[in-house]
Automatic annotation (TrEMBL):
It comes from Duganella callida. It comes from the Bacteria. This is DUF7684 domain-containing protein. Residues 4-138 form the DUF7684 domain. InterPro entries: DUF7684.
Length: 139
C-alpha cells in the first residue's frame, strides 16, 4: 500500500517542510516555468527531504533531471554513492502524464529501498489536486 501526497507550488513559492515523508518517490509535474535558481532550490530541497527516485515531466523536464542529479551528487560531496543513498532520476518529456504515473506506480523501483511514499510536486499557477490524484490512481 503506497502513500500519496500532493503538493502544489507556484514558481515563487516558499518550500515547506515535508511532514511524514522519508525515502520517497517524487513526480515533478512542471506546468509553469521556474527560474533556474528556484529549480536548484527545489532540487536540493527534494534531496534533503529524502527523495530517492524522481520523475520529471513537463516544462524543462531534462533540466529538472539534471538539477536533481546534481543536487544528489552535491549532497554526497561528489563522492561515489552507495546503493542505499542513490537517487534515481528519469525525465519524461515525450510521455503523456498518465504514462509517467503508470511508470511511477509499476516500474520505478529503487535498488536498495521499497519506496512506499510518493510525492506529486505540481508546479503550476493553480492547483489541480483532485484531477491529478484521480489520474495517478487510474494509471
Amino acid at each position: 500500500m503506497s502513500h500519496l501526497k500532493y503538493l502544489h507550488l507556484t514558481p515563487d513559492s516558499e518550500l515547506p517542510a515535508l511532514e511524514g515523508l522519508r525515502q520517497f518517490k517524487a513526480i515533478i509535474i512542471a506546468e509553469a516555468e521556474v527560474h533556474e535558481t528556484m529549480m536548484w532550490d527545489i532540487s536540493r530541497w527534494l534531496i534533503a527531504e529524502g527523495c530517492q527516485y524522481a520523475l520529471a515531466w513537463g516544462k524543462d523536464a531534462e533540466a529538472w533531471r539534471e538539477a536533481i542529479d546534481d543536487a544528489a551528487l552535491e549532497a554526497v560531496n561528489y563522492e561515489d554513492i552507495p546503493d542505499e543513498q542513490k537517487v534515481l532520476i528519469t525525465s519524461h518529456e515525450d510521455d503523456d502524464l498518465d504514462e509517467v504515473f503508470w511508470f511511477a506506480r509499476h516500474r520505478a523501483a529503487h535498488p536498495a529501498h521499497e519506496l512506499q511514499q510518493t510525492l506529486i510536486l505540481h508546479i503550476a499557477d493553480a492547483p489541480r489536486r483532485e484531477e491529478i490524484e484521480a489520474e495517478y490512481h487510474d494509471a
